[in-house]
Prior knowledge:
The chain is an alpha+beta fold. It is built from seven helices and 18 strands. It has helices at 34-39, 41-56, 88-97, 155-161, 176-184, 243-250, 279-290, and strands at 2-6, 13-17, 23-26, 62-63, 81-84, 112-114, 127-129, 136-137, 140-146, 164-171, 174-175, 197-198, 202-203, 222-225, 228-231, 261-263, 303-307, 320-326. It has a six-stranded mixed sheet with strand order 6-5-16-9-10-12. It has a five-stranded antiparallel sheet with strand order 4-3-2-1-13. Strands 7-18-17-14-15 form a five-stranded mixed sheet, with no helix packed on it. The longest helix has 16 residues, at 41-56. The protein is globular and about 60 Å long.
Amino acid sequence: MKLASLKSGRDGRLVVVSRDLARCLAVPDIAATLQQALDRWEALAPPLQAVAEALNAGRHGEAFPVGSGGVAAPLPRAHQWVDGSAYVNHVELVRKARGAQMPASFWTDPLVYQGGADDFLGPTDEARFPDEDLGIDLEAEVAVITGDVPMGASAEQVRARRDIRLVMLVNDWTLRNLTASELAKGFGFYQSKPATGFSPVAVTPDELGAAWDGGKVVLPLVSHVNGEACGAPDAGVDMTFDFPALIAHCARTRNLGAGTIVGSGTVSNLDRSKGSSCLAEKRMLETLATGKPVTPYLKFGDRVRIEMFDAAGASIFGAIDQRVGRG
């Protein structure tokens, strides 16, 4: 099934969405918000699924206002947002471009950081920044929403218990000209990671069919900047750590509450013909090839679109379609 949140208060109004993203239905008698549904998932998922089946059969529902500005992130705010860097070839490339060796442990021990979870952007919300000179960049990613995960859970347990409740897309906006100074302090990202944007809907893994292998989505993630193709790397290829592995890493020393969001990091393939999911990677490849970057970072008025399509060419999550604006 597909779930979304229409803009209403701080936590949105939960709606079930038809598979074709055409219709939706609020379900206040089941759960008013997505977080409420996640808190009681075992009890509430079956009636939500029944609504989804009725919608897909065309029996009821109203127009889903995707693209109208009335759709929030599936979770407009979350108890926790943890972003990983699961495509280690991307990390290696970043370090190579600046002449730094990558520790061997990066291939065996996942990298994660804790992002700001209190202020997410809806799929068509303008992404506002104080200054173009901050190095505004997109990062196209996949993310999952978990149920309750106990401390010490293994990747195998996460997979067996089906702790991954929902899957969605992410634009993890990054301010590249702030990252180096922040990381040099040895305490991680903060100012360089502004509000994150999410796809219109989050979907249950079964909705992905054969494209979900139990731990990752095996489909291209397509991104455009101002209507021009940026990249379409396959999210199921070159993912060193799948989502159960990332979740187990996050839960090593703490419990994860229902509604925790875990991101994949920038989707990247070793096959460079697939393009890039962020401008920093394009600039790195240009630097390695010619000695200097050519592609500029984003400017006010630029538009970013991120989407994923099924085998029949239908949009699965709807599009993140955001304009860069002045904050």
